Amino acid sequence: MKIVSGDNILITYALGSCVGTCIYDGVAGIMGLSHILLPEKNLCPGDTNVYKFADSALSKMVSEMKAYGASVHRMNAKIAGGAHMFASSTIKIGERNVQMVKSELNRLGIRIIGSDVGNNYGRTMECHAADGRVLIKTVNRSIVTI
Question: What is the pLDDT of residue 43?
Fold first, then answer.
């Protein structure tokens, strides 16, 4: 997880089943990006890195963004990832990650205004703090702006 402002760009690579969540307050010019690995921290008892889990990372990131002057009422989110990377797997962790991210954002009162999730391929998410633009880059596909 990282928080920036100004002309900074945040990038998270290799979003397979993981979900990148970019939250932006355009008035304050403050942006946060998290790379969620799992939906719930109870899946890894004893792991103290709250930023790995949707049910703990997003509220922590929002809290830290507020400390820099962002307001929840002005925040919006863009999400990417949550792919089903292995056809043989019956565990749909990507889908579960997306569901939990959406649920947490809803609970926090943050609207999702852009999304590129699902399917069976990985993504790179590039988030621009200057204007809130988010680019999704995927091998052998066109760059998508969400």
Answer: 79
Domain boundaries of the chain, sorted by first residue: 2-145
Chain Cα centroid distance, residue 99: 12
> What is the architecture of the domain spanning 2-145?
2-Layer Sandwich (3.30)
* Active site residues per annotation: 18
Helices 93-108 and 54-67, packing angle to 10 deg: 40
Query: What global pTM score does this model have?
Result: 0.94
Angstrom distance (rounded) from CA 98 to CA 83: 9
33 and 2 Cβ atoms separated by less than 8 Å = yes
For 14-55, write each residue's pLDDT tens digit: 999 999 999 999 999 999 999 999 999 887 888 889 999 999
**What's the rounded Cα separation, in Å, for the pair 143 and 129?**
18
